[in-house]
Amino acid sequence: MTPLLDVKDIRKSFGALQAIGGVSFTLNRGEILGIAGPNGSGKSTLFNILTKIPFPPDSGEVSLDGKPLKSLGPRQIVDAGLLRIFQTEMDFESLTVLENILVSMPDKPGSGTPSSKQKKADELLELFGLTAHSDRLAGEINVYDRKRLMVATAFAHNPLVLLLDEPAAGLSKPEIEEMVELIRQLNRLGVSIILIEHIIPLLVAVSDRLIVLNFGEVLAEGLPREIVRNPKVVEAYIGN
Ligand code: ADP
Ligand code: MG
């Protein structure tokens, strides 16, 4: 079976710094793939170049659902179903929670009246636990609610693949547990997920498979429980 996302030998340098050096991997349909790695190992850059926001890879090939992304711009990649959230909050602070969701929902021709769009938005608010905050400005809600809002706005696009960059950063322990449950729920709803986290127990708990990046290259790949015991991985983290 062709993988849902197929990444072949992608590279990205900033001047003399090789941020991503020849990374290849696949994401299978229905899978949650975790990505770990020390600070500066290239995790966020990987999401940047996959989505071309803000820049494409220098070289390499990426295909989504069998279609090459090479000739597509960032907007077309979103329309094709590859969506990401950023490590820092990137929602619209001066819009309400509901408005953030409404502006993220695609306007498919013939797909509906304003009231059906409102209904879908209400369902999303409910799913993400944001109903009570619907009319508050995004800039005024707490970190956890903003993280959930960012995931909600990405999910509102009906993605095939969601790329989550440290969705649990800055959250308390109970909030992290809820975030894990939310990620699992989105996955059960049919979304395949790549999850970047530096919280290793979270990655082990939620990922079907784990990739560890180090200096922009794949250091190890496999089952989460085995990967975290891998001596090379342990050394990369202690050496950091
Ligand atoms: P991670 O997310 O794993 O912490 P990043 O992907 O953010 O790491 O960064 C990987 C490396 O690339 C770092 O050395 C970082 O300083 C560098 N880098 C990332 N983005 C840029 C950029 N836009 N310009 C220059 N260097 C960058
Ligand atoms: Mg990062």
Automatic annotation (TrEMBL):
<feature type="domain" description="ABC transporter">
    <location>
        <begin position="5"/>
        <end position="240"/>
    </location>
</feature>
<dbReference type="GO" id="GO:0015188">
    <property type="term" value="F:L-isoleucine transmembrane transporter activity"/>
</dbReference>
<dbReference type="GO" id="GO:0015192">
    <property type="term" value="F:L-phenylalanine transmembrane transporter activity"/>
</dbReference>
<dbReference type="GO" id="GO:1903806">
    <property type="term" value="P:L-isoleucine import across plasma membrane"/>
</dbReference>
<dbReference type="GO" id="GO:0042941">
    <property type="term" value="P:D-alanine transmembrane transport"/>
</dbReference>
<protein>
    <submittedName>
        <fullName>ABC transporter ATP-binding protein</fullName>
    </submittedName>
</protein>
<dbReference type="InterPro" id="IPR032823">
    <property type="entry name" value="BCA_ABC_TP_C"/>
</dbReference>
<dbReference type="GO" id="GO:0005524">
    <property type="term" value="F:ATP binding"/>
</dbReference>
<dbReference type="Pfam" id="PF12399">
    <property type="entry name" value="BCA_ABC_TP_C"/>
</dbReference>
<keyword id="KW-0547">Nucleotide-binding</keyword>
<dbReference type="GO" id="GO:0015808">
    <property type="term" value="P:L-alanine transport"/>
</dbReference>
<dbReference type="InterPro" id="IPR003439">
    <property type="entry name" value="ABC_transporter-like_ATP-bd"/>
</dbReference>
<dbReference type="InterPro" id="IPR027417">
    <property type="entry name" value="P-loop_NTPase"/>
</dbReference>
<keyword id="KW-0067">ATP-binding</keyword>
<dbReference type="Pfam" id="PF00005">
    <property type="entry name" value="ABC_tran"/>
</dbReference>
<dbReference type="GO" id="GO:0005886">
    <property type="term" value="C:plasma membrane"/>
</dbReference>
<dbReference type="InterPro" id="IPR051120">
    <property type="entry name" value="ABC_AA/LPS_Transport"/>
</dbReference>
<keyword id="KW-0813">Transport</keyword>
<dbReference type="GO" id="GO:1903805">
    <property type="term" value="P:L-valine import across plasma membrane"/>
</dbReference>
<dbReference type="GO" id="GO:0016887">
    <property type="term" value="F:ATP hydrolysis activity"/>
</dbReference>
<dbReference type="InterPro" id="IPR003593">
    <property type="entry name" value="AAA+_ATPase"/>
</dbReference>
<dbReference type="GO" id="GO:0005304">
    <property type="term" value="F:L-valine transmembrane transporter activity"/>
</dbReference>
